[in-house]
């Protein structure tokens, strides 16, 4: 992550009517946008993870911080606008129902950075904090 520079490319324009970056068959406004603007909260760890991926796409660090567990949350987050997130694959999930207090989501997020394609593979842990799902950490 790095500071924004005037030479960095702008993030893609995502409007309420755009397809949601998370990959679900819905518009951004009806899907992750509702979580980002506080109209709804993610009902499962998978939906939270998808909304966090979309927050990287639209460069929304405040949402990422708001959905990060208080014990592992950084003080601030500076997203790199030079990274363009290009797709998300959810590989597996565990737990995370209304009857669980924790869950995991394994995913692969695809990106382009400085002209090169790459991906991030992670097994993320999620827990409930104050009744809401939050990101805890990545399983090593």
From TrEMBL:
Checking InterPro entries in the record gives: NTF2-like_dom_sf (IPR032710), YchJ-like (IPR023006), YchJ-like_M (IPR048469)
* Pfam families given in the database record: YchJ_M-like
- Using the record's annotation, list all stretches that form the YchJ-like middle NTF2-like domain: 44-138
Family of this protein: Belongs to the UPF0225 family.
Protein's name according to its UniProt entry: UPF0225 protein RM609_02410
Q: What organism, scientifically named, is this protein from?
A: Streptomyces hesseae
